[in-house]
C-alpha cells in the first residue's frame, strides 16, 4: 500500500475515507492556498428535499494560507447545521448511536478550520474503526513521489470526488423519493449503516 496526501475536509465524502482506508499512511495538506466552495469547508447530506450543502463560514483575510483560515462564529451556523443533520438523519437506524459523538467537534468552537476538520476526521475514523497514522505537511510541495496525491481531485468545486470510485450501495433514508446518491458526506454512510460502514468503503 502507498501513502496518500489529501486536503483537509469537513465531514468528507465516502471516497475520501476509502482513500484513507487503502493507504499505509495519510498526509493532510495544510500549506496550500485556501479555495472556496470545496470540501475544505462544506459537505453534502441527503434530506427530504434532496441534497443539502452545509458550509462553514470563514473569516475573510488577505492571508489565504489554509492553516491560517479562521472560522467565523458571528452567525449561528453551528446550531443550524446540527438541526439540519438531525432533520436529515433523525429516523435513520444508527442516529441515536452516533449523533452526539459525530457532532461533538462542532461544539468545541475551534479557532481554525483545519482544527475542526482534524477533530471531525479523528472522530469518524474512530467510529469506522480505521487506524492510520495521520500527519500534516510542514511546507507546500507541488508534487510528491511514491505517494498517491489526491489534493487536486478533492479540490474540484463541482465534482470533488474520485470519479471511478463506486462504493457499495446501501439503504439510504428517503430512498423512496430518490435513487441512490453516491458520494455524500460520511455522515450519510454512518447514520445508515452504523458499524458496517467500514465494509461499504
Secondary structure elements and pairings:
Elements: E1 3-7, H1 14-22, E2 25-29, E3 42-47, E4 50-55, H2 77-89, H3 95-103, H4 113-128, E5 133-136, E6 147-149, H5 151-155, H6 186-193, H7 197-200
Parallel strand pairs: 1-2, 1-6, 2-5
Antiparallel strand pairs: 3-4
Task: Report a brief summary of the structure.
By secondary structure, the chain is of the alpha/beta class. The chain contains seven helices and six strands; from the N terminus they run βαβββαααββααα. Helix 1 (14-22) links the parallel strand 1 (3-7) and strand 2 (25-29).
What would you say this structure looks like, in words?
The structure is a single chain. By secondary structure, the protein is α/β, with parallel strands linked by helices. The chain has one domain (about 5-200). The protein is about 30% helix and about 15% strand. The chain has helices at about 15-20, 75-90, 95-105, 115-130, 150-155, 185-195, 195-200; strands at about 5, 25-30, 40-45, 50-55, 135, 145-150. The chain has a 4-stranded parallel β-sheet. The chain has a two-stranded antiparallel ribbon with strand order 3-4. Helix 3 packs antiparallel against helix 4 and helix 3 (about 95-105) packs antiparallel against helix 6. The two termini are about 15 Å apart. The mean pLDDT is about 95.
